[in-house]
Design brief:
alpha+beta, Helix Hairpins, BirA Bifunctional Protein, domain 2, 2 domains, eight-stranded mixed sheet, three-stranded mixed sheet, 41% helix, elongated, RNA-binding
RNA sequence: GGAGAGGUGGCUGAGCGGUUGAAAGCGACGGUCUCGAAAACCGUUAAGCCUCAUGCGGGGCUUCAAGGGUUCAAAUCCCUUCCUCUCCGCCA
């Protein structure tokens, strides 16, 4: 949520930020108009309530002296009715205003590049060499078939297309990667491990910015008002909703594994083969709660932490900064990590790291007391994949495939897998 | 799922429908005392919003799990929902 007061004082800044995101910016005027109406009504109601309270107290005193108050009670009845009516219209206005505000994306950091889609994302750096193989690299679904790593048909049979059944070494690799990533972030970068629920309620989904506009991307239940979690960012960011964190313990860093569920409605075809786009996937997510002045520095270390994962997996990657048109709803600034996939011949997004500034914290009401000012302030929240598994597995298989059809495992994974390579035997 | 108990400020915990935004205690902060500290004593100690002044600040409204209702007036009465605890049932 954007700060309404800020929007009032700096409508131009908000408008420009919206335009950078391919919005018209007219939302700002709608908010301002509604806000003015609301304030007018609010002041009126405020004054009426003050009168009501004052006269109620008078009635209380007069009754104590056994005076007759029937005339007053009649008048007050009318006043109470008036207040009630005003309350209803005020509430309508307020809900409309909140509705508009809840749909405004976060303010972009001024450094975010201009651009309407991912083609305008800014290349920052790359790491590793694209392997030059003596043979034609196979795509991961082909390797998986030969090595019996996952079974797309049977996954479809039990749940539907886009739900993967991992088998044998494929299943073990999935488990190994999860354990290794959690250990890695815990030991090397000091993230505290949490294992959140895989379902989230409405408040949590709203707080993270997934509602009201992205409800369609989540799986819902017919017999409970819950959602299957689309990313661990949602439950972990909401951990301290309504709480006040201690300034001295910030920044707080958490690493969480969850399965992630996404409807990906309408997505089918060439970009969705194998593990490229699925309805359920595993992900280790990194979440930070920071003081406002730290958050952009923390974003840099967050990306580096995620990069170390793909480095240890020996996967060539590039880091790009997302442009205004490609950046997520809650993010003020974001980076993607894309690994090279020789079998598919594409860069695959395996991580997205965002600074959501106070956008989610305001929705969730997660604050800290600033020791300098003594005031309560919203924390900043950050999240980043560290990293998402399916495309990482795809890139791992494709980059480390050998001429003999086996797949070499990077040293980091060997202790977790118990073997140095995956073979069909 | 059934039965019961309960949800009040940072915490513990009072609260006959009418100066109770809320006693008391603890904690925290400030002060007195002290060379310093402890103890003792004194004081301060919720948040959000609107508005005036915009330097401190002033005025008003809201908030006692959440939502609705009764009433001139609700922490207090009624209804619904959520959560916690105990017992039962079911279950890996």
């Amino acid at each position: 949520m954007i700060d309404l007061k800020y929007l009032r004082d700096h409508p131009e800044v908000v408008r420009l930020s919206l335009r950078k995101r391919n919005h018209s910016g007219d939302e700002v005027d709608a908010v301002l108009t509604l806000d003015e109406e609301w304030r007018r009504l609010f002041t009126r109601q405020n004054n009426l309530r003050a009168e009501q309270k004052k006269r109620s107290e008078e009635i209380a005193t007069r009754k104590r002296y056994k005076e007759d108050v029937t005339a007053e009670l009649a008048e007050m009845k009318e006043l109470a009715q008036h207040v009630r009516e005003l309350e209803v219209t005020l509430k309508e206005k307020e809900e409309a205003l909140q509705g508009l505000l809840a749909r405004l994306p976060n303010l972009l950091h001024p450094s975010v590049p201009e651009g309407s889609d991912d083609s305008a994302n800014l290349f920052l750096r790359s790491w590793g060499e694209i392997p030059s193989l003596s043979f034609t690299p196979l795509p991961h679904w082909e390797l998986a078939k030969r090595l019996k790593l996952f079974d797309l048909e049977r996954g479809s049979k039990v749940a539907g297309s886009g739900f993967i059944l991992y088998t044998g070494w494929g299943a073990k690799l999935e488990r190994a990667l999860i354990n290794w990533m959690l250990d890695f972030h815990g030991r090397r970068h000091g993230y505290q491990e949490v294992f959140p629920p895989f379902v989230i309620n409405r408040e949590t989904a709203f707080g993270a910015g997934k509602l009201p506009d992205f409800e369609g991307q989540m799986y819902t239940f017919t017999n409970a008002d819950l959602f299957l979690n689309p990313t661990a960012e949602v439950p972990v960011t909401a951990l301290f909703a309504g709480e006040t964190l201690k300034a001295e313990e910030l920044p707080l860093s958490y690493a969480a594994y969850t399965a992630c569920f996404r409807r990906e409605a309408g997505a089918a075809g060439k970009d969705t083969r194998g593990l490229l786009r699925v309805h359920q996937f595993d992900k280790v997510e990194l979440v930070k709660f920071t003081r406002p002045e730290q958050s952009f520095d923390e974003l840099e270390t967050l990306v580096r932490d995620a990069e170390e994962i793909v480095q240890a997996l020996e996967l060539p990657y590039q880091v790009v900064e997302l442009c205004g048109g490609d950046i997520g709803f809650g993010a003020a600034k974001a980076y993607d990590i894309n690994v090279w996939s020789p079998g598919v011949g594409k860069w695959l997004e395996v991580s997205s790291c965002s600074n959501c500034t106070d956008f989610q914290a305001r929705r969730l009401n997660t604050r800290f007391r600033n020791p300098e000012s003594g005031k309560l302030e919203f924390v900043h929240t950050l999240n980043g994949s560290g990293v998402a598994l399916p495309r990482t597995v795809a890139a791992l298989l494709e980059n480390h495939q050998q001429a003999d059809g086996s797949v070499r495992l990077p040293p980091a994974l060997v202790p977790y897998m118990g073997v140095e390579r995956i073979t069909s035997a």
